[in-house]
């Protein structure tokens, strides 16, 4: 199934829905489902079927009129669109509670994240073993990045340390940063920063509880 | 500043941006900035100024031609739109690494989340003290909810336990659920569920690293 690789710009809203497609299709693959109509799949995900078809049209021709989608084929295509056929060498910096939660998360390697090293600046935990990884000193970070050819850095430090760590990661050749610190990170143009603001979900919840009557989908 | 409370439906995409407005304005308030133009504010947030004005138009009249926005006034309006003038009594269920990260997070009470109790089913940690909260047994959850008048439940259990916990929360009168378990939760119609899938950020990062040339904003 060919992936269109032309210069068509993909709207940010479409990019945001791709992880949802991946999650739902992964469950359907695991359940052994062979095919699904665009109506069924869109209902499952709480979007319209025209939205689903339009989103997928950015990436190629999927599904057949009257037949629907082959689940495994669509899942594999989404994986390819997302770049999950690669394995990215990754470090995590900041081994607090959130860092530990991520280090222990089972789903990362399935998604192509190859965690190589974990770092902190707290002498009390340097040397500690977490899920098979030994906590290293941040002082070792810079040389480690180049020696191991690290591509992605995950920042789970306090806000005050995030930019300094990002600077080290970028100087060491990292091209993708997954930032959990509540701090805007400035980078070079060719470094991608993805910010995950966990607390945003709480604000959305509050809003929806207050304005139930004004929501598109109840 | 009046908040329009009519039946105008707010698009999901606008709701998703509200937490970002809150975050940026909070920083500007903390920095003591008095006013900001819609151009400056939109540039800071990486959206167009027409987008900003259109988003805010769902909630009332903000800013003045040639003057811009009064920062504190806009921040307070966003807080009111988000429902942050209330305090929501909350429990958290599932005291693993992610649960601990949330319990230790300083930003919750500022955002109106009043954490009252934390629960787990692991005898090894029941009774443990975390950031001033004692871990209670899940068996105490149902009566606790009604006695304390709990409004929000945060689920940080494994996927396999999430629906069972949600059922207890709903039976106990909770009207909002913030779900971190990678599991779809079925609820009654008047219960709001906000899902936070932390791993989605990783997939977005992979996509952007692979398709740099197809992004709207570099």
From TrEMBL, chains A, B:
Top-level lineage group: Bacteria
Domain CoA-binding: 83-184
Signal peptide residue numbers: none
Swiss-Prot/TrEMBL GO biological process terms: negative regulation of DNA-templated transcription; response to redox state
GO CC terms in record: cytoplasm
Presence of the UniProt keyword Protein transport in the record: no
Principal location listed in the UniProt entry: cytoplasm
Binding site for NAD(+): 94-99
Protein's UniProt keywords contain Mitochondrion: no
Regions recorded as binding DNA: 20-59
A Gene Ontology molecular function term of the record: DNA-binding transcription factor activity
Entry similarity comment: Belongs to the transcriptional regulatory Rex family.
UniProt-listed NCBIfam families: PRK05472.1-3, PRK05472.1-4, PRK05472.2-2, PRK05472.2-3, PRK05472.2-4, PRK05472.2-5
Annotated function: Modulates transcription in response to changes in cellular NADH/NAD(+) redox state.
Protein name in UniProt: Redox-sensing transcriptional repressor Rex
Organism: Thermanaerosceptrum fracticalcis
């Amino acid at each position: 199934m060919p992936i269109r690789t032309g210069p068509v710009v993909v709207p940010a809203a479409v990019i945001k829905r791709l992880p949802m497609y991946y999650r739902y299709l992964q469950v359907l693959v695991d359940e052994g489902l062979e095919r699904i109509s665009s109506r069924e799949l869109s209902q499952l995900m709480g979007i319209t079927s025209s939205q689903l078809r339009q989103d997928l049209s950015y990436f190629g021709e999927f599904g057949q009129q009257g037949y629907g989608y082959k689940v495994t084929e669509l899942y594999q295509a989404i994986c390819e669109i997302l770049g999950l056929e690669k394995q990215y060498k990754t470090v995590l910096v900041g081994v607090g509670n959130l860092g530990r939660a991520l280090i222990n998360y089972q789903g990362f390697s399935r998604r192509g994240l190859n965690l190589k090293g974990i770092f902190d600046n707290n002498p009390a935990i340097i040397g500690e073993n977490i899920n098979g990884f030994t906590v290293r000193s941040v002082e070792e970070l810079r040389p480690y990045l180049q020696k191991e050819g690290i591509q992605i850095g995950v920042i789970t430090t306090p806000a005050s340390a995030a930019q300094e760590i990002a600077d080290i990661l970028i100087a060491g050749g990292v091209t993708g940063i997954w930032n959990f610190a509540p701090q805007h990170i400035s980078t070079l143009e060719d470094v991608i920063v993805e910010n995950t603001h966990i607390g945003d979900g709480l604000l959305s919840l509050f809003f929806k509880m207050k304005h139930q009557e004004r929501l598109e989908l109840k």
